[in-house]
Structures are given as C-alpha cells and as structure tokens.
Design goal:
The structure holds 2 protein chains of 2 kinds. In chain A, 70% of the residues lie in helices and 2% in strands. Chain A is mainly alpha-helical. In chain A, strands 1-2 form a two-stranded antiparallel ribbon. The chains are: A mainly alpha, B alpha/beta.
Chain lengths: 210, 329
C-alpha cells in the first residue's frame, strides 16, 4: 500500500488553495444568499497565507506541518470558518503525529480527529446544513473503501465523490447552525458555502494522492 | 455610497489611528487592534475584555476606561476578531485575578473567543455570551438569539463590579444574571453600507421598515409598512414585554440609535417608549438615550430593557470614564 508523503500533503493544501481561490466569487455568492458574503474571500485569504508560510519553510513532519496550517488559518480567516478549518487541521496534525508519511489507516485516523475538532467547535449534527454534511460522508466513504481493500488513491477518490454528494444534499436543507439559521425556511434552496468549500478540500486530497 | 475613508481596505486601521490620537489616556495596540486603558490592570482586579467586529462604535473600544472595559479587540467590519488577537488582549489585560470575556452571540465570535480562551494558558478566563435579541426565535434549531443592546449595559455594570473588587466567579455570575434579565428589539429604516462592499447590505423601499433587524443588517422578523413613531415604539416594546415580566421592580431602559438616526428622533422615540412602559406598569429607574451599539450608517433604533435591583443600580451609578460613557467622575 502506498503511503501519503509530506510533499503530497503540501500538494493537497496547495490544490485546496487553488480551488478556493478560483471559486472565491462563487463561494461568496453562495454565502451572500444565506450568510454574510465573505466565505470565498476569507478562505482564499487564509489558504493564501498558509501557502506563503509553507513556501518560506515547510515542516518535515505532519504534526508541525498541520499545526502551522491550523494556526495560520485561525489567525487569518476570521468568522466561523477560521476556527472550524483551523481546528480541523490542528487536530489532524496532532493525531497524525511526528511522521513523514501516512498510510491509509493513519490518514483515516487523522481525518477523524479533524472531524472531531469541527464537531467540538461547531456542535453541528448531520443535516444542519454545515461543512459537517460534506465532511462526514467523505470520511465514511474513505473508511468503507479502505475496509474493502482499496488503496489510498481509490479511497480518497471515493471520499471526494461522497463530499460532493453531501454538498449537493445541503441544498434543500434548512440551516440550523450559524448565521444562516436566522433565515429559517428561507435558507432552503441554497447550497451551504461551508459544505461547498469542504467538498473542494476532498477534491484536492483526491487529486494530490491520485 | 459616499464615505469619509481613504481606502475601504484600511478603514479599521485608520480609525484606530484616530482613536489613539484623540484619546492619549488609552493605549492602542495597532498590530493586534486592541484598545487598552492607559495604565495596566491593577493587581488583583478582574480584567473585563470584550470585542467583536467593528462597525458598532462606540461598542467596544469606546467603552474602555475606568469602571468599564480593560481591553477591547476589534475585528474587521462585522467580522469577529481572530483567536490570536483575543489571546493577546487576554494576556495583556490580565492583572492576575483572571479575565472575563464578554461575547455577543454570533457563531464566529463565540468560536474565536472559545479558541482564544483555550490558547490563553495560565490565565483564568470566564466567558459570558450575551443573547438578548427577542427578534430571533430561541430554539435548538437556530444558533440562538443574537447579542445586542444588553451588551452595553452589561459592560458598564460588570465593569463597576470588577472595579469594586469582586472576584472572577462573582463578576461572571453577575454578568450572566444581567444577560438573563435583559431583552432587546431593533428596527431599521434603511440599510447600512459596509465600506468594503460599497453598496447597501439590503434593499428596502422608502415606505417600508425592517422590524427585528440585527446589528449587521440581518433580516428581522418581518418587513412592515412605515408608521408613526408611536406605532414603531409599540412594535418594539410589545415583543420585549411579552418575553419577560419587567413589572414589580426598577428597570434600566436604553433607546439606542443604529448610527444614522438623529438624536432628536431618538428622544422622540424614547418619549413614546416611556409612555408605553408607564401604561404597562414598568418602572423606569435609569435611562440611556443615544448611539451606543450601532450598525454603521443604518437608520433606525433599538430598545433594551433590563430588570435591575439595588446591586445592579449601584454598579450602574458607579463612576465611569470612557470615550463613550462618562459620569460620576
């Protein structure tokens, strides 16, 4: 089984930066319908700052790498996305540990820890119309693929597909968390911006580990 | 939209330069966008720290000074400050007796302050989250009620309590009691315009008003036809009185401007509110009329009613010396 290396993990982050930057206007448009119209610019700014920092010095181990990523997001994104994505990467790194590569099981464990951080911070449940609705099915799909004997590339590809399906499934939902929840029924009929950026996160992971 | 700015991207930084220039008695950390008192927190005094997105001035930076806040952190307009900023203010303001975070109930603010409290190792932090806006239905299916006008009254009251030497637990308990005893409701005649956006946050026809609007221009309960001030007052006061019983004791009442409504109208509105409260048997013991928690240039107002008692009134009357609130000095 092929392991995921530090350069691949950095490539994951780089591709995620590219996706949120290319789709900055789209994410902001989604957010303006049910939030405060800053998700695209906030994520693009945050991931830009992350890649600037990693460009200056790339840590050699996963724990240090993702600590840098998490703290940079926390200090540069603001809003709710900063703490949510920041906590995701901080917990991901802590669980990954001081290693230079992750096998499929270690990748799954780190993703689960990240998801746990998002849950602890955001207290969201399935169907609340949040990033959890893309992240949770993605990790479930990854685990199922691994259990079925798939390699990392096939597992992350399954995760990306599940994240996209989870994102699409947020459209009819009524938001129960965050600023969108104040809209009540009026939040239905729009994709959740957080679930949309989370789908990019898994698209980027699949591409970096293909 | 015409604004007195140099560049939409530098509004906050440029404004803090002005705060520092106008108030040599305060200390401004421009890098972290923190306003501190000019002198460090007295040893043994609980530090009161608040913050949030800017655009609500004088909240929070204008309430730093004797008898109120020890530090205030500014985020970008309508955007929560980040955990590292809040951590810097928490460590910078701590006088050894711990720090009370006063946080308005918005998802971003709550998360960023929560992370900051976790990061501030070695400092004892208590948090009160204000959530007094009756316009939002409080259910498990929303992020809960928004923190609005009560935040101003709470910062004054717990600021005085900390000044008197109450310990962190006692100050936090008082803060929660004040939050639980207050309710607010706001309305808008016009939208606000965020400098970076350059256009109004929402469109509203000339003959309509937004009842229950939030302090970021969030939609309210409903959009209704424009009406006389007496009717507007009724639509603001009724939901507050329906939510909590304010009879049988003294109350502090604030008629707050959203930033774009002149004082002559705010006083007119207060007169209408007072008539309604008299008729409902709600005793008005103290009042505050003016622009205290604003929404940039939005026209409109909000009403806040806080059930008081002897202790709360004592702390309300205690000396305060800040750019935004000053008496008894």
């Amino acid at each position: 089984m092929v392991d995921v290396s530090i350069p691949q993990l950095v490539d994951w982050l780089s591709r995620f930066r590219d996706l949120v930057t290319e789709n900055r206007a789209y994410l902001t448009e989604l957010d303006s319908a049910i939030g405060d119209a800053d998700h695209g610019s906030n994520m693009a700014r945050g991931m830009g700052a992350v890649m600037d920092k990693l460009g200056a010095a790339t840590p050699a181990t996963a724990d240090e790498l993702f600590k840098t990523v998490g703290m940079t997001l926390v200090s540069s994104v603001g809003g709710a996305s900063g703490p949510l994505y920041g906590t995701f990467f901080l917990r991901f790194g802590t669980t990954a540990g001081a290693v230079s590569q992750l096998d499929a099981a270690a990748l799954s464990a780190a993703l689960h820890a990240g998801l746990g951080g998002v849950l602890a911070r955001g207290k969201a449940e399935a169907g609340d119309k949040t990033m959890f609705d893309a992240m949770n099915p993605a990790i479930e799909a990854l685990d199922a693929a691994i259990a079925g004997g798939a390699d990392v590339a096939a597992a992350t590809s399954a995760a990306a597909q599940a994240a996209a399906a989870g994102r699409d499934a947020t459209e009819p939902l009524v938001a129960r968390k965050g600023r969108a929840s104040y809209l009540g029924d009026r939040s239905a009929g729009h994709l959740d911006p957080g679930a949309t950026s989370t789908a990019y996160l898994f698209t980027a992971l699949a591409a970096a580990t293909a | 939209m015409k604004k007195l700015i140099n560049d939409p991207a530098t509004v906050l930084a440029d404004s803090l330069v002005g705060v520092a220039a106008a108030h040599p008695e305060l200390r401004v950390d421009h890098e972290n966008r923190i306003v501190y008192r000019g002198t460090p927190t007295r040893a043994g005094k609980v530090a009161i720290v608040s913050g949030g997105g800017s655009g609500h001035e004088p909240l929070h930076g204008g309430f730093v000074g004797l008898g109120m806040l020890d530090a205030a952190i500014s985020g970008e307009v309508f955007t929560s400050p980040t955990p590292d900023q809040v951590e810097a203010a928490t460590k910078g303001a701590d006088g050894g007796a711990g720090v009370l975070h006063i946080v308005k109930n918005y998802t971003g603010d709550v998360m960023n302050f929560e992370m900051a409290a976790e990061l501030s190792e070695g400092v004892n932090v208590e948090t009160v989250v204000t959530n007094d806006d009756v316009a939002v239905e409080d259910s498990t299916w929303t992020a809960g009620r928004r923190g609005v006008g009560v935040t101003v009254l709470l910062e004054k009251i717990v600021g005085a309590a900390a000044e008197e030497g109450l310990d962190l637990q006692a100050v936090a308990a008082l803060a929660r009691r004040v939050n639980d005893s207050g309710r607010s409701m706001g309305m808008a005649l016009t939208s606000c315009t965020v400098p970076a956006a350059g256009k109004p946050t929402f469109e509203i026809p000339d003959d309509m008003m937004e009842m229950g609007v939030g302090i970021h221009g969030e939609p309210g309960r409903h959009r209704v036809p424009m009406a006389a001030a007496s009717s507007v007052a009724e639509q603001l006061v009724a939901p507050i009185l329906a939510d909590l019983d304010f009879t049988g004791g003294p109350n502090i009442v604030m008629l707050n401007g959203m930033g774009g409504t002149p004082l002559i109208e705010l006083y007119l509105m207060f007169g209408e509110v007072k008539k309604l409260l008299d008729a409902a048997g709600v005793e008005v013991a103290r009042t505050l009329v003016g622009n205290y928690i604003t929404s940039l240039d939005m026209a409109g107002c909000s009403v806040t009613i806080l059930k008081a008692d002897d202790e709360i009134l004592k702390f309300w009357d205690a000396p305060v010396n800040t750019p935004g609130l000053r008496w008894g000095i």
